[in-house]
Amino acid sequence: MTVSVFDHPLLAGLLGDDELAELFALRAELDAMLRFEAALCEAEAEEGVIPEAAAHAIRRAIEGFRPDTAKLREDTARDGLVVPGLVSQLRAAVGAEHAAHVHFGATSQDVVDTALALRLVGAMEIFRARIGRVVDALDGLEKRDGNTGVMAYTRMQAAIPVTAERKIRSWRDPLMRHRARLEALRGHIAVLHFGGAAGTLDGLGPKGPAVAGRMARKLGLNLVAHARHSERDAQGDYAGWLSLVTGSLGKMGQDIALLSQSEVGEIRLAAGGGSSAMPHKVNPVKAEMLVTLARFNATLVSGMHHALVHENERSGAAWTLEWMLLPQMTVATAAALRTAEVLVGEISFVPA
Amino acid sequence: MTVSVFDHPLLAGLLGDDELAELFALRAELDAMLRFEAALCEAEAEEGVIPEAAAHAIRRAIEGFRPDTAKLREDTARDGLVVPGLVSQLRAAVGAEHAAHVHFGATSQDVVDTALALRLVGAMEIFRARIGRVVDALDGLEKRDGNTGVMAYTRMQAAIPVTAERKIRSWRDPLMRHRARLEALRGHIAVLHFGGAAGTLDGLGPKGPAVAGRMARKLGLNLVAHARHSERDAQGDYAGWLSLVTGSLGKMGQDIALLSQSEVGEIRLAAGGGSSAMPHKVNPVKAEMLVTLARFNATLVSGMHHALVHENERSGAAWTLEWMLLPQMTVATAAALRTAEVLVGEISFVPA
Amino acid sequence: MTVSVFDHPLLAGLLGDDELAELFALRAELDAMLRFEAALCEAEAEEGVIPEAAAHAIRRAIEGFRPDTAKLREDTARDGLVVPGLVSQLRAAVGAEHAAHVHFGATSQDVVDTALALRLVGAMEIFRARIGRVVDALDGLEKRDGNTGVMAYTRMQAAIPVTAERKIRSWRDPLMRHRARLEALRGHIAVLHFGGAAGTLDGLGPKGPAVAGRMARKLGLNLVAHARHSERDAQGDYAGWLSLVTGSLGKMGQDIALLSQSEVGEIRLAAGGGSSAMPHKVNPVKAEMLVTLARFNATLVSGMHHALVHENERSGAAWTLEWMLLPQMTVATAAALRTAEVLVGEISFVPA
Amino acid sequence: MTVSVFDHPLLAGLLGDDELAELFALRAELDAMLRFEAALCEAEAEEGVIPEAAAHAIRRAIEGFRPDTAKLREDTARDGLVVPGLVSQLRAAVGAEHAAHVHFGATSQDVVDTALALRLVGAMEIFRARIGRVVDALDGLEKRDGNTGVMAYTRMQAAIPVTAERKIRSWRDPLMRHRARLEALRGHIAVLHFGGAAGTLDGLGPKGPAVAGRMARKLGLNLVAHARHSERDAQGDYAGWLSLVTGSLGKMGQDIALLSQSEVGEIRLAAGGGSSAMPHKVNPVKAEMLVTLARFNATLVSGMHHALVHENERSGAAWTLEWMLLPQMTVATAAALRTAEVLVGEISFVPA
């Protein structure tokens, strides 16, 4: 079943991204959830909240754990999320003696949000690297073509002559600013979510903060004063960043499509898409896809902002909406960066 | 790879829909495209545009056709769409003698848009039936609980007592109107898209209209005066309809979530979701999912309207944006109707 | 204070519309609300719900009514809407004897929604006429320039030659379909909203339906089975229609901007905007504004769909959101139609 | 004419903001534009680009300048923006001798973007102060009610008891993060836009950078390496920030509306809205408005991201879209902060 282009056997090659999609594969998702449970049991044992033997049993169960996904799917449809069913299977795997120590003091949202954070850390690393490569490619383009005399266009009309450098920098500089913005964002995304039933770690009593501190270190995530289950500003801000990146790349794509129009010819494309009806055409497909991905993210970012209106200590409705939007936005951004890097290597400015 | 909840091995059971997703599976998509090509060659042979022997060869090749999907994926990434690669493989399967008669006079958009229309006809049939079942379920609920005295709430505050009938009808009547709206929409969605390179069927000369007429009959689609490659109002209108349906169901979901709050208790849920931290809870998961799906479609509908700004005779950017949004909106609507039907069967109004 | 371009002393000439804005002026709004109250008291007197003398006193007070707008503004800030303060002032004007008969059995939403319906009827009339004029202008353009040979463009590249007729029809035909859609919509917008506190007309007992019937006739609105206070599908559908219209005009604007590019020159503009830096330029300002207005409505339509998730019998939050969006969308659509009509008169196709 | 609630004589008291709207009044807008022109002529005279006498004449003309707004409106409708008409009137006021030195080397976008920046600096100052006051109010609430035992709610169901402190902090902490984010944003908003016709200051030759440096100092704005006419990331990022703020306040509003429901009564409202039909009600109008304003901005932010796809050196279409959205988003945010401050002072937590 392939409702989304990102999961589509054919279209994912155009609009998706293999490396990023990997992070959202079921295996990666369950692994990240189990990493949370492993860190939890270890931290709790170290703090004397659960017996060391229990932690040992849980770790061993996790190592050999093979979830019954058909059952998980069924439970998810009932519970609205994967965790209750997953914890129940994990408890069965651990055995009756230590079952009650599995997931002790945690709540589903701790697991889901932390498991996402672990994977977004990876995504942000990839973004940083890819932005760097696009910036480098644009630097290279400027070095080669920057002095080429071209026409500036304002309001869709030829304005005055400029050099290509002017255009190239207007594509590159926003990316450099986005890279700087990412550093600021990162700290709020790469956090441990751990609050228990109502965000107060009430099940752990005075040991809560110490357990949380150990978990954060084990998972390589930032420790925050309390769980942000219902404070979704980091998610909204991250979604906005994704859409800023695709928006800036969409501007570059739009420019390239306009400048490589048959009559304008200010940019030459070394490669392009073929047509089933007109074999002579070289379509600026990659440039168009940058526009498409920009408008896709510009559309979805709105929903992520609606999801800020999160009722009380946990909103099933608003939280689930994030799941429907954020992975797609993340992959769309990766696809845009991947496409942009290739595209920049395929264009050259043509002297007027 | 499962970036979208609709394609996710676990979450699709909650937020997806097996029956609808089937229509967007690669097999269904390629089949629909090949139905277009089959109808095209037959119609062209009947009108003497291509030899009957060519049509025969093409039909036979289609019957036994097994596409090389790895190659298709690669070509799609270059061309921006599946058709050029698909036609090229089909031509190879047909053989050199008749290859030039494959896809003759058609363009990629004819194939993609018609293949979608063929599948949306099926989707709309399913929608009509499911709306009917939700309406019936609400009628049954009204029969059983309609006279129960409950509280009306305005602006989140208790207002005056009413009977449950008042609430039930406010959920049901919009669905009945949506069903009526669907009939009007259907005629503009269930159309043959056939215009050739620039929407003028120029490759077929005077035979264009006759070929188009035959194709429409063969495919069970409406014939329109000219291809609407760049006129996307039907798609936008259909997307709006989808979001109206999920919006109305979202209102019902929101009401049910509010009325089944612990302190309100105006509605009792026979079933609900479990919590990993609080085993005593019965969460109104289905009601929440209706809200989520409503906000999802309310978000995406915006992008479908942006896609109306379609440049010239074909916009790669705007058209591709539709592919990213419309299948998801369609499946979200199906999921909401499926969920609503079950949910209505699980609620009962509790006398004040 | 001019936060919105539609109310801006200068920009409203570019992006606003005097005729439509008139319908949203305070005077028109209060007049429509008072028409509701007048029809209400008359109908109630005719049905014996209130004394004829009371109706007489109310009508007379309405005729000479001059609201204290400073007080109204203050009350509105507290109550969240204009009606409680307005009714209170009207009651004072009517005098103690009949004050209790003012607004009897009605609720604020009855007044606000009906007052909007009365003005949208006018807006829809204007839309119908203006669409007609744009269609006529395009017919005229086709008559004059339809046979001009021009280039078709697909995916931003020259494709094959066509006649201008092909382009003109792709702009005109969607407008004709929108006009047909408007007829279907109209019936659900031009309705009397009258439900009382909780939508059941409970204050009027058995006389409710008869009073409602008389009011609908007096106001020239359709009578519906029960008030649709919380069923906002008509509003959502209407918003979608507005955005379909601006989207189709935005496509025309985008095409004109592309075809009148300096190097393309397929369309010549008889008039355009001037530049403060480059006196030689003729900017396709009207064409650009059509794109802007299309994207504006495509953005706002999303919020109207979110407003479908209307809690219980009345949602202050969702309902107020409609007020923030629908008038602007309506005026944006009027501005687009006004601009399109002028623009079509200013373009001519240039033989290749 | 009052199409927007922000300019509406009555609704602006509910949803608008007098202090902020002031910044978007025509007078403030023209003043800011004239400040740009004054700084420009002074800097150019100091660098010897224009004669000191010309600068003197321009400064004097600006001081006594009274624009013909009827003419400005007309010119704006033609040119798509205010500047060409304004410059033309200013030149007339300066007189023939120095007219050519007015606006020398600048372009319309320099004026419009810088004039907005000057006013947004003021808006951001107000935001910082207001966020501080809301944070203080929440601190006060925590001091007074923080230990009150209340119920936590997850997925719309009672979960476990917590203290009110937990809820109050989940409202306050995001605001503190938004305040920190504002500091980072500010530097990219408070910039001088000065690039001339195509963003290269080509009219000023080697004097360009020195003139720009002087202007930035005179106007108290940051100097950037080149004009960002077509790089709209700062605008998009700022719009996202606005929507994050209203989203976080919307979450607080939603919580307060839920917790003050008749049956829940966890929060008591000292003041609320009246109903025209049910005098006994105290409606949580301010809480609802926070939700409305959140969804309004969450809707509009999408359009600001679409505006990132800015064609070439200047896009009339994308740029104008910003004008339709950003002032409204700014005022909506101000209204939400104003409302939140009052609302926090009106609520108290009620022991369970």
Explain what you see.
Four copies of one chain form a homotetramer. With 352 residues, chain A is mainly α. The first copy, chain A, has 13 helices and four strands. The first copy, chain A, has helices at residues 12-15, 18-23, 26-46, 52-63, 69-79, 83-94, 96-99, 108-145, 164-189, 208-219, 233-259, 285-306, 316-346, and strands at 149-154, 157-163, 267-269, 347-349. In chain A, the strands form two sheets. Chain A has a two-stranded antiparallel ribbon. In chain A, strand 1 and strand 2 form a beta hairpin. In chain A, helix 3 (26-46) packs across helix 10 and helix 11 runs parallel beside helix 13 (316-346). Chains A and B meet through helix 1, helix 2, helix 5, helix 6 and helix 11 of A and helix 1, helix 2, helix 5, helix 6 and helix 10 of B.
